[in-house]
Amino acid sequence: MMMPPGLVSNLQEALLNRKGAQPKQEQEESNDNAEPVEAEIDPSKPILLITNTHGVDSPGLTHLVEALLREGLYNVHVCVPQSDKSVSGHSVTLRETVEASSANVSGATGFEISGTPVDCVSLALSGALFSWSKPILVISGINRGSSSGHHVFYSGVVAGAREALLWGVPSLSISLNWKKDESQDTDFKDAAAVCLPLINAAIRDIEKETFPKSCFLNVEIPTSPLNNKGFKLTKQSLWRSTPNWLAVSTNRYPAGHFLANQQGGLGIQFAQLGRDASAAGAARRLTTQKKNLEVVESIGAAGKSDSKKVKKYFRLEFLDKQQEDTDDDDDLDHRALESGYVAVTPLSLSPHIENDIQMAASDWISTVLPGEQ
């Protein structure tokens, strides 16, 4: 005999109460009223927020956090994406729930976020995640691969620092000029050591209110960090890797499937979703870590296919072949980076850096790093 739905609901609630559990509605209300996570904070030390694009297991993140903790001067907190978002640009997550999972990064309090680097910074600065809402500095990095030239528009690590500036918080983005068959994970430890004096100087002058305003600094570390020629103030160049779209076999990747391969600094992405799912259909995501392959499988009612419709499939790769600047200016970011300098480029929210911002950054760098260019 089928029991009335109302009676079933009442019985379930009574059973939950007997076991000492909260009814579902009360649980939801309790979650809605949850307080921000209280981390152990030494009030005598400034708060740093660290984000990145490659997630919690990135050696760039690990070595940067360890270097900052060894200083013993800061409260270090981490908020990073759950998966690789190295080419996410300044994208945000809308109309979807973002999950935050606690994580310990070399002793620093942290969270993994099911979103982009911009989501990480925005959520952390909102006051909804941590008990604080405004750190003294946001550091995005250390990224695996250069973010100079036109790569700043693709770069998730640069976007993380840019988002902090939108919130009125000083920020740095840091990248290592990683090269295949030449770089190794231990280079991130050296990169952290190289940029630490710049970080310490930035924090000191933020407290003094002498740090450049209206911009953030994009720091590019050369492939061999310890052999760098010093810090150099640079301007954004027009350099970029060459994009290359490849046709993909329809037999291998049929409609209704999604392929994403994030190997390398920029990675490749390909997506094609079929239109064979009804409005009431649901989707189930399966992850195959071995091949880094995601498949979205429709389980809705299939509609009629259009045999006359032409469908083509492509994926994007960024080739090692690079498009060089025609400008002979030695102060361009990528040219200085390839010459062995640590390139420091001020970036503002405007497409163009104003002369006064460039001069302020130049004056600051020459003050905190004497002898640098």
Automatic annotation (TrEMBL):
Pfam families with a match to the protein in the record: SurE
Domain of life: Eukaryota
UniProt organism field: Lupinus luteus
GO MF, one annotated term: nucleotidase activity
HAMAP family assigned: SurE
Similarity comment: family membership: Belongs to the SurE nucleotidase family.
Residue ranges constituting the Survival protein SurE-like phosphatase/nucleotidase domain according to the UniProt record: 49-240
Region of interest called Disordered, as start-end residue ranges on this chain: 18-38
Protein name: Survival protein SurE-like phosphatase/nucleotidase domain-containing protein
Keywords from the UniProt entry: Hydrolase, Metal-binding
Listed Acidic residues bias regions: 28-38
Keyword Hydrolase: yes
